[in-house]
Design brief:
One of its GO terms (biological process) is double-strand break repair via homologous recombination. Its main location: nucleus. Its EC number is 5.6.2.4. It is found in: Nucleus. By secondary structure, the protein is an alpha/beta fold. Helices cover 48% and strands 13% of the residues. A 7-stranded parallel sheet has the order 3-4-2-5-6-1-7, sandwiched between helices. Helix 6 packs parallel to helix 8 and helix 23 packs antiparallel against helix 24. The radius of gyration is 28 Å and the shape is globular. The termini are far apart. The structure holds adenosine-5'-triphosphate (ATP) and magnesium ion. Magnesium ion (MG) binds next to helix 4.
Amino acid sequence: METEDILQELLNVEVELQEVQEQINALIGRQEKLQERKSELKSVLEACGSDSGSASNNGGGVGAVEDYSGTFDWDAEAEDVRLNVFGISSYRANQREIINAIMSGRDVLVIMAAGGGKSLCYQLPAILRDGIALVVSPLLSLIQDQVMGLTALGIPAYMLTSTTSKEDEKFIYKALEKGEGELKILYVTPEKVSKSKRFVSKLEKCHHSGRLSLIAIDEAHCCSQWGHDFRPDYKNLGILKTQFPDVPTVALTATATWKVQIDLMEMLRIPKCVKFVSTVNRPNLFYMVREKPSVGKLVIDEIAEFIRGSYPNNESGIVYCFSRKECEQVAKELRDRGISADYYHADMDVKARERVHMRWSNGKLQVIVGTVAFGMGINKPDVRFVIHHSLSKSMETYYQESGRAGRDGLPSECLLFFRPGDVPRQSSMVFYENSGLQNLYDIVRYCQEKRECRRKAFFRHFAEPYQDCNGMCDNCAFSSEVKEVDVTRHAKSIVSTLHDVQQNDQKLTMLQLVDKMKRKELGSDIKKEEMEHLVIQLIVKRILKEEFQHTAYATNAYVAIGLLGKQVLQGKSVIKLDISGGQNRKARTMKSAKCTLMSSDIENKLDELRKELAFIHGGIFPHSLEKIIGKLKTQKYGERILEEIKKCSKFEQSDNDLMSENTAAKRTSEETKAWDNGVKGEGQINENRAAKRQKTKKALVLIDTSEDEE
Ligand SMILES: Nc1ncnc2c1ncn2[C@@H]1O[C@H](COP(=O)(O)OP(=O)(O)OP(=O)(O)O)[C@@H](O)[C@H]1O
Ligand SMILES: [Mg+2]
């Protein structure tokens, strides 16, 4: 055998070995998924067995054994409270079923996306059931918001925390112990349960006399070390079920992987709970990715232009940055461009952080520029945009961070700025984490995708079937020209360049590699940015790989030949790169997709009023711009709303005098549509009402608010 033949065969064997390795990896992944499913089915079976086949599991893909969507004795009372106390016109997905399960005395696990409406699921049964409901929540700020909101609705809610006055504490303990005074919902931090013997003993007395109505554990993923916000005190909450086994316990969280779910059911001792898993889909969020300019100032120009153009009325937003220093810099540069922005990160003292958070929550600051530290505890429902100055470290974190937009259900935008140069910055931070690089490359794939629906990536990640995006992402909304270019020879050249470099015991960073390629003649027919994209794509496809080296100050990322590199060298793979064509994707936003609300004068005025009332009365008002606001809110705010409408109607009338009848009619119908979209938030357009409004313009919203009397 000639040496050349031997070498050739050796190469072939190596390639085949790599292919086998790929298949093994895929099979290991499948094995892990099947194991998870196996233990899921086993625990469901156990629950069924020990529960004599009664209600067991609902939602989580296992199928409902007991139906909580039927009719129940408390239906009429529940409807009344939903509408006339909470001012909510209809339930969202799973809310009614969850309420019914709690009312039936079951333990319940709720997994529902951010802003999905988890609070109503325990607050409504708390009102319907006799006695006091205990709610455990991890942060003081979250508790304060909730108590303020409930108080404004006339619901007797209190909190027992370090900030509670002696007087309130006395009142709460009396209510628990003796049933005196009006108390329906009591919020505490987990520390109260695990550290205050006095509190637990009062709670026992409350339970003993049959007055503990339910226990809700909010942000329940904090129980699990596998979750993203582990709180040691959450681990002790299991004692609540041990002490009060007959009291329905409801655990609520926005995201929980299977591991976290198992963990928290175990910790909270609710193995037989009914589980409701809602979709991860956030239909009101418009997802988009933009090419990030390589010059820092240009990125800020674009961000500022985006905010000014789409949100000129001080609508709230968040900008996420990679580092603390970057936060400070970006906030300053946004301010230089006339945008009211401030930064928030873990290096600041608690007081300073609270101040910034407060100013932003009250609408005095438009934009908060934060690191990932700006996370749980953001209870602001009307965040209209979340911008990522750099990519997140995984699809999961991106889902959570971008998910802080639009918790009130109104259209909101999630914009991510991506450039290949940001990948090594992230990878050198996450490479030591379990699956850190894998997770990062998933989101890189999301960023580089120029055709596929962005939602598809989320559904894939959370193992959910695909749902229609309704044009709510850049790739679905715009059929932009994307050219598929064959870059096989460029890829080959990159791999062989790296081969030479490695032979000489040298290393290249991604940028050095791109520079080297650009200096070669071959690189000249694709631009530098495209070459960067190609290198990243080759890394994601494992043709190249990243290697890391620690210095005294940092960890550097270098590019090396990956598992499938040789296949490219042998000409066995065809590599394609998607390149955006002529049209400018940059200027495209939800607005240009015509998905956003049309701002009419009246809508702006009403929104200002909403903000003012929300500020005074504690953030209770966002959903009240919906079709029906319920008796309580009509009584409280109806007058002010009507006043505002009358003013606008007068203004419009005089305006209309100057317009031809036709134009006036057209404008009115557009405003009507805007109002319909705005007030209903979730796209349920009532055509009859719209028609009515078109006829009698002055009575525009009178019709809406007077529904109760109709
Ligand atoms: N059925 C409904 N119709 C309209 N609005 C609703 C409905 N249910 C809840 N909301 C509103 O949706 C917003 C978000 O609700 P909530 O705070 O309960 O969300 P959440 O699921 O707890 O989110 P997070 O995980 O971020 O805490 C609130 O403004 C709430 O009033
Ligand atoms: Mg919540």
